[in-house]
């Protein structure tokens, strides 16, 4: 039995999830140079938004085929609202302030959002189960794909394609590129940078919402802390892929996910490393990879050279 | 509009009288004597009904109230909760036992409740069979203890638990309450002695 | 404008911080609310330390409520003349560092004469010394790691590290082997994949299980240590499937065990997952989902329905109207609290009905000789501070609930 194909798929799925969340980090950083540490919580609130739609808005027993798109919309509405609200009330007032101020604000916001969900969402003090798609797993050769993963497998590439189209072809997208390159000049050229920044936050939140629904379907339950670790991983993925580059975020996510999975699966078989091979060491190996990549390509896998800024 | 504390001058929505005086009165229909009596004693009937409802509700609540912790008679305890089996020492096997066997003495005591019958003594390991003296089933009264000799015969050395850390006996216990299979883990001394005895028995066997 | 926003942010941050601290101090009003017959006597506080928030809160809240019930019962019956019991419950979030802070806090309160808790062995480790230095008695209803009472070298030489530490739960030195025997002899599984979470409890339990399983002739076909912070165990699940194991043993707690069981089965390995008392919770069944049927757990103590004393506890617990279930350790928590009450009673009675000045040290001494019929059977402690009553039960998931399949008593 060859384990490799299955483990690669496991890694790919995990990585796509990281990638979807990483896009939010990378877009916001690319435009305002802010590491939005509350992004993991924007992801988390999205999952609760989807659950709210399912539990409290849709009638009982709605088919998942109908429910899923509505849940996705619910997740997006909540995530975008939280993200735009955070931008408007927490980050915009600090735009001229030293770098550290918005960063600390982001951390505070992250805690506040977690605690708010913990305190006020009914039943959120422990894990809440998330609706599942019925149907058995699919087998392709020796590889098994769970029903819940199909959504992720389809949604991740489609989202990427839409994002690429948006950034490359639309006016707003080009405005984003311009603002990323030089905000002051962009402003002089008549671009409403305030609006562009809001759009960046909203777009990141949209992807986080897709990731949140995928996460709920994949693992079957959600909780108020689900965004914390995933957010850290996604941020790592964004750095690995080159922060500021949207394709890099996705690639970085996939590389990180595959690296973690393969480390869990195969390091223990390497002679002499059997003590360092379990899942508890997977993060260590993933970060060794990150350090190696940053040693040779400080700008990340697909990152642009960090020239005159920062 | 001024807030005066009085009710609305004109009936608001939903506050109009239920029986509109100029509507078609149902009383056009001749009313039976019962209904007429009801009309006369409306207040009394209402209060009687209310009293009934209160009584019924109270009775229901009373009947279904959480029972105080006093079951009419405490059922006897489960046998596994009153029986204790402790390991004593290895003893020589009874004369009629086959050569590849060895024996241990254990003490079975019953703390309280009705007498407990041991219907079966077994042990879960393949490669060993077990008999007891006195042979099961046997009964033991409360507040008493008896010494039991467990004789084990090795049926297959390869499958015997050479090195079990905490081997146990599965004892089927029965009293008036229940029949239960309970495991008695006899501790490290028993483990050691069992392991030693197996070594001896199996070396005899192969020799 | 600027100014106002800053104030708003600070307020938001403060609110967040407050909510956080609120987690730690959201204790109940204690147990004395309905006493009324203590005659204005002395108040003795029983401290409680358990995870009251977070993943393990189901177990932790069960512990807190059960201790509260014990205190209330003692007050109602005026069990110790002139003494009114109250509880002070602190939240350790399952983290050793927080547990240690809580221990310091409890020691500082002079009214605290005994502490029930914690849940996690790793937290227990961090608290022992603090309590021992203060000669404050600690009774854990749930710590099962053998080293806590018998020293780190318990397998070769048993030495009791702390005189003030007691526990009512059975240790993993018995629990692991008991599970191994059941899996090997009764379930007839010969190839196990052993997984743990690297914590004191999980790793210790997995080790005692593996050792006995190998001794019996079984084979460990793979080992894995998971990262408790993640919930993606797919890589591990694939490994389990490819190892050809016919059973998985998991040393750890239900927040990870549930998803792990689910993902292993989803990966195509339809084999049972077996764990210890840490997974014996209704939440495990919820997290593991329908595919968890047939999973096994060993837990400390006999099944509740077999003990008349436990039935009474269950009824009283219900009557007291606690929101959360008493869970796996309810009976042991009640007994732990009651052991403290008994010890206090002894100390008070030996001192003409008053608390002596060195009450804490006296309570520690009295605890060693405590003996009473508790919820879980006879409660008393051996020379290491371990419970003398050592019962274990194997439970299986059946129709969405835990059902007892076999019980054992350690009489060595």
From TrEMBL, chain A:
Pfam families tied to this protein: BPD_transp_2
Topology of the protein relative to the lipid bilayer = Multi-pass membrane protein
Location of the protein in the cell: Cell membrane
Question: InterPro entries, per this entry?
Answer: ABC_transp_permease, BCAA_transport_permease
Q: Which residues cross the membrane?
A: 12-35, 42-58, 64-86, 98-121, 150-168, 196-214, 226-243, 250-268, 280-296
User: What is the protein's major site of localization?
Assistant: membrane
Family to which the UniProt record says this protein belongs: Belongs to the binding-protein-dependent transport system permease family. LivHM subfamily.
Is Transmembrane included in the keywords of this UniProt record? yes
- Which keywords does UniProt give here? Amino-acid transport, Cell inner membrane, Cell membrane, Membrane, Transmembrane, Transmembrane helix, Transport
Report if keyword Ligase is assigned. no
- Annotated protein name in UniProt: Branched-chain amino acid ABC transporter permease
TrEMBL record, chain C:
Q: Which UniProt keywords apply?
A: Signal
Q: State whether keyword Signal applies.
A: yes
Q: Which Pfam families match?
A: Peripla_BP_6 (PF13458)
Q: Where is the signal peptide?
A: 1-22
What residues form the membrane-spanning segments? none
What domain of life? Answer: Bacteria
Q: Is the keyword Cell membrane assigned to this protein?
A: no
Residues forming the Leucine-binding protein domain are 43-400
Query: Into which family does the record put it?
Result: Belongs to the leucine-binding protein family.
The protein, known as: Branched-chain amino acid ABC transporter substrate-binding protein
| Organism the protein comes from | Streptomyces viridiviolaceus
């Amino acid at each position: 039995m060859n384990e490799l194909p299955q483990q690669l798929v496991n890694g790919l799925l995990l990585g796509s999830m990281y990638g979807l969340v990483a896009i939010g980090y990378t877009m916001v950083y690319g435009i305002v140079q802010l590491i939005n540490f509350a992004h993991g919580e924007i992801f988390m609130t999205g999952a609760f938004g989807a659950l709210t739609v399912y539990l409290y808005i849709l009638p009982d027993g709605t088919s998942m085929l109908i429910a899923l798109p509505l849940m996705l919309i619910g997740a997006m509405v909540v995530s975008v609202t939280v993200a735009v609200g955070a931008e408007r009330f927490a980050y915009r007032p600090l735009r001229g302030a030293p770098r550290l101020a918005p960063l600390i604000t982001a951390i505070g916001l992250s805690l506040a959002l977690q605690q708010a969900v913990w305190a006020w969402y009914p039943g959120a003090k422990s894990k809440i189960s998330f609706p599942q798609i019925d149907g058995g797993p699919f087998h392709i050769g020796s590889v098994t794909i769970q029903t819940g993963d199909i959504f992720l497998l389809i949604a991740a590439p489609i989202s990427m394609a839409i994002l690429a189209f948006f950034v490359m072809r639309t006016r707003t997208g080009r405005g984003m590129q311009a603002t990323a390159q030089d905000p002051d000049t962009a402003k002089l050229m008549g671009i409403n940078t305030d609006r562009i920044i809001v759009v960046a936050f909203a777009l990141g939140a949209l992807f986080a919402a897709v990731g949140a629904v995928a996460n709920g379907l994949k693992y079957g339950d959600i909780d108020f802390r689900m965004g914390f670790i995933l957010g850290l991983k996604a941020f790592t993925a964004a750095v690995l892929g080159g922060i500021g580059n949207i394709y890099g975020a996705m690639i970085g996510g996939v590389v990180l996910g595959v690296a973690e999975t393969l480390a869990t699966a195969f390091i223990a078989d390497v002679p002499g490393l059997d003590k360092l091979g379990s899942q508890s060491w997977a993060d260590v190996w993933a970060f060794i990879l990150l350090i190696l990549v940053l040693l040779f390509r400080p700008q990340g896998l697909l990152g642009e050279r960090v020239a005159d800024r920062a | 509009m001024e807030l005066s504390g009085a009710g609305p001058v004109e009936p608001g929505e939903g506050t109009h009288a239920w029986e509109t005086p100029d509507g078609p009165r149902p009383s056009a229909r001749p009313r039976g004597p019962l209904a007429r009596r009801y009309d006369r004693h409306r207040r009394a009937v209402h209060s009687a009904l209310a009293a009934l409802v209160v009584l019924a509700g109270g009775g229901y609540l009373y009947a279904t109230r959480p029972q105080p912790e006093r079951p009419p008679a405490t059922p006897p305890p489960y046998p596994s909760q009153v029986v204790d089996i402790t390991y004593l020492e290895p003893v020589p096997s009874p004369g009629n036992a086959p050569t590849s066997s060895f024996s241990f003495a254990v003490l079975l005591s019953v703390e309280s409740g009705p007498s407990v019958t041991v219907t079966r003594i077994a042990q879960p390991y393949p490669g060993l069979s077990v008999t007891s003296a006195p042979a099961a089933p046997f009964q033991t009264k409360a507040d008493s203890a008896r010494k039991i000799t467990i004789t084990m015969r090795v049926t297959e050395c390869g499958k015997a638990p050479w090195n079990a850390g905490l081997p146990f006996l599965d004892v089927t216990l029965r009293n008036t309450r229940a029949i239960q299979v309970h495991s008695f883990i006899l501790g490290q001394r028993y483990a050691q002695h069992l392991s030693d005895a197996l070594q001896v028995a199996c070396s005899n066997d192969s020799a | 404008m600027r100014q106002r926003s800053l104030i708003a942010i600070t307020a938001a941050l403060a609110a967040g911080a407050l909510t956080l601290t609120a987690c730690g101090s959201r204790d109940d009003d204690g147990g004395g609310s309905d006493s009324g017959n203590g005659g204005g006597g002395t108040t003795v506080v029983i401290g409680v330390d358990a995870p009251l928030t977070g993943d393990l809160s189901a177990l932790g809240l069960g512990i807190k409520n059960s201790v509260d019930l014990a205190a209330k019962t003692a007050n109602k019956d005026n069990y110790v003349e002139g003494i009114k019991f109250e509880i002070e419950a602190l939240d350790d979030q399952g983290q050793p560092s927080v547990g240690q802070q809580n221990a310091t806090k409890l020691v500082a309160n002079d009214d605290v004469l005994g502490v029930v808790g914690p849940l996690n062995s790793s937290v227990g480790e961090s608290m022992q010394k603090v309590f021992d230095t203060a000669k404050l008695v600690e009774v854990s209803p749930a710590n099962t790691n053998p080293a806590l009472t018998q020293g780190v070298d318990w397998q070769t030489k048993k030495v009791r590290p702390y005189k003030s530490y007691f526990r009512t739960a059975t240790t993993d030195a018995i629990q692991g082997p008991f599970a191994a025997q059941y899996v090997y002899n009764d379930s007839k599984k010969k190839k196990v994949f052993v997984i743990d979470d690297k914590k004191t409890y999980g790793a210790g339990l997995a080790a005692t299980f593996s050792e006995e399983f190998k001794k019996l002739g079984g084979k460990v076909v793979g080992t894995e240590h998971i990262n408790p912070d993640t919930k993606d165990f797919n890589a591990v699940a694939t490994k389990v499937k490819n190892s050809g194991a016919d059973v998985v043993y998991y040393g750890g707690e239900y927040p990870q065990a549930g998803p792990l069981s689910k993902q292993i089965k989803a990966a195509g390995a339809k084999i049972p997952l077996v764990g210890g008392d840490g997974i014996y919770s209704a939440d495990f069944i919820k997290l593991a989902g329908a595919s968890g049927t047939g999973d096994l757990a060993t837990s400390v103590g006999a099944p509740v329905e077999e003990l008349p004393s436990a039935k009474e506890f269950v009824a009283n617990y219900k009557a007291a109207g606690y929101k959360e279930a008493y869970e796996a350790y309810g009976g042991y928590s009640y007994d732990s609290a009651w052991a403290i009450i008994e010890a206090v009673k002894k100390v008070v009675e030996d001192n003409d009905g008053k608390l002596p000045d060195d009450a804490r040290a006296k309570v520690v001494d009295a605890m060693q000789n405590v003996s009473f019929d508790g919820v879980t059977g006879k409660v008393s402690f051996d020379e290491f501070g371990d419970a003398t009553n050592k019962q274990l039960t194997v439970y299986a998931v059946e129709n969405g609930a835990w059902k007892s399949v076999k019980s054992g008593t350690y009489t060595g």
